[in-house]
Structure formats: structure tokens, C-alpha cells
């Protein structure tokens, strides 16, 4: 969809805050045969320069990441169709209004010893949204 520059009015800090608050997006990379995409929760750093996420080992993106590579993470918010009939004048066409932030960078697989920390930080952040429910912890799982 065409993105008119007139509507790119959010400051960098607003875009980072939006992405951090949503904490869910579509990660996309170029695979060997075709583009690959995965819908993932993530945790974005305060300054928006890095993020961490978890993908199951069987995810095609994980298998494609033998080396770090370029990626896009699309974070979407509200959207809606706009009818030309809603304008006071003729001459308009249908459009779609939406909120989205695209984060671009290098994606790589971290060493296995970082996995538990990533899972704990991600689940803690999501569980905190459900307060006053007690926060679920990884310790509730068996080592199996």
C-alpha cells in the first residue's frame, strides 16, 4: 500500500514507544527460495536499537539463520477502511488508514545459554499485563 509522506508524522520516539507497547509483530527475512515470515512477541530496548524474541527451533526463519542477515519487523496497530462518500467533496478514492511501524536491522541466533533469560523477560513482560493475576514463571515447568 502506498504510504504518503504527509502521514508520516510520528517522531522516532513515538514509533519506538508504539512498537514497545505492542510487543508483537511480523518478522520477515529473505529465505533461500522465498521470503519467510513469522508472527512473534518481542521485547524492544528503551532506545529502540535492539530487541529480543524467541522462535521455536523448527521455525523456517531459525533454520535459515546460519549467518546474521537483514530483517524487517512490521508492528501493526489499528486500521480501517475509509469510504470516499465520507468526504464533503467529490473526487476522492477509497483508502485504508492504519498505524504501523517497520523496524529494520540484523537478525541473528543467540547462543543457547541466553534462551532462558529471553523466555523469562518475555513472559514476565506479558504476564505483567495481566495483573493482578500472579505472574507465571518458568520454574513451574519440569526440566523435561
Average pLDDT level: 91
Based on secondary structure, the structural category is: alpha+beta
Beta-strand segment tally = 5
Query: Number of helical segments?
Result: 3
Helicity, as a percent range: 10-25%
Series of H and E elements:
HEEEHEEH
Report, as a whole number of angstroms, the end-to-end distance.
Answer: 46 Å
Shape: globular
Q: Major sheet: size, sense and barrel closure?
A: 5 strands, antiparallel
Strand order of the largest sheet: 3-2-1-4-5
Rg result: 19 Å
Poorly predicted parts: none
Strand content: 25-35%
Question: Could you list some keywords that capture this structure?
Answer:
single chain; 144 residues; alpha+beta; five-stranded antiparallel sheet; globular
Written description of the protein model:
- By secondary structure, this protein is α+β, with helices and mostly antiparallel strands.
- The chain contains three helices and five strands; from the N terminus they run αβββαββα.
- The chain has helices at residues 12-22, 60-64, 115-128; strands at residues 24-30, 35-44, 51-53, 69-82, 95-107.
- The chain has a five-stranded antiparallel beta sheet, sandwiched between helices.
- The mean pLDDT is 91.
What's the helix and strand layout?
Layout: H1 12-22, E1 24-30, E2 35-44, E3 51-53, H2 60-64, E4 69-82, E5 95-107, H3 115-128
Antiparallel strand pairs: 1-2, 1-4, 2-3, 4-5
Amino acid at each position: 500500500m502506498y504510504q504518503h509522506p504527509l502521514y508520516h508524522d510520528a517522531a522516532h520516539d513515538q514509533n519506538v514507544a508504539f512498537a514497545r507497547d505492542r510487543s508483537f509483530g511480523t518478522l520477515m527475512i529473505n529465505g533461500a527460495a522465498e521470503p519467510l515470515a513469522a508472527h512473534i512477541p518481542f521485547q524492544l530496548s528503551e532506545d529502540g536499537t535492539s530487541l529480543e524474541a524467541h522462535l521455536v527451533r523448527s521455525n523456517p526463519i531459525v533454520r535459515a539463520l546460519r549467518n546474521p542477515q537483514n530483517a524487517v519487523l512490521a508492528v501493526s496497530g489499528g486500521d480501517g477502511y475509509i469510504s470516499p462518500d465520507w468526504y464533503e467533496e467529490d473526487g476522492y478514492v477509497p483508502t485504508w488508514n492504519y498505524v504501523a511501524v517497520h523496524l529494520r536491522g540484523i537478525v541473528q541466533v543467540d547462543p543457547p545459554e541466553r534462551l532462558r533469560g529471553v523466555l523469562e523477560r518475555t513472559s514476565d513482560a506479558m504476564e505483567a499485563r495481566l495483573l493482578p493475576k500472579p505472574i507465571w514463571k518458568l520454574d513451574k515447568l519440569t526440566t523435561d
